[in-house]
Amino acid sequence: MIIVDRRELVYMAYNGFRIIINGITIPDNLIAKGSWNFNKLKRTVSQWEDANKIEHEDVLPTRKADIKFSIKRRILSEQEQIVGILNVQEEVPVTYWDDYTCSYKTGVFKMEAVNFNHENTKNGDIQYSATAIHLTEY
Questions:
Q1: Are 68 and 96 spatial neighbours (Cβ–Cβ below 8 Å)?
Q2: 23-27 long-range contacts, CB within 8 A, separation 24+
């Protein structure tokens, strides 16, 4: 681990997790197999059409991270481990594995609304369905 400045810790190698959301590490074993999707999207500043009807797009040189994954089917005790990720859905602090650089990065994200579905309740426990998470960096 290298300290870049007081706000950011950079891990040079994979450290056993893909994402920390709002200070809560989502264990790899809770991420549904094959659901992790990481992309870098362009940051469009403006789009316009010139007098010759040619479309133009002005973009920033840095791209923003777009992360999608599903939390696997789980029971209540597993849900309780990660419930803190939902405390904030705007300006969410996230540390994530960047597949483009093979290193960890930090950023501020927005989280799409999360829907929870119960598959079943049995013996005083709740069985949750897989839950989709979608984060987009500002």
A1: no
A2: 23/84, 23/93, 24/81, 24/82, 24/84, 24/85, 26/71, 26/82, 26/85, 27/81
Q: How far apart are CA 62 and CA 28, in angstroms?
A: 28
The tens place of each residue's pLDDT in the chain, 138 residues long, gives 444 444 455 556 899 999 999 999 999 999 999 999 999 999 888 898 999 999 998 888 899 999 999 999 999 999 999 999 988 899 999 999 999 999 999 999 999 999 999 999 999 999 999 999 999 999
What is the model's pTM? 0.81
- Domain spans, the chain: 2-137
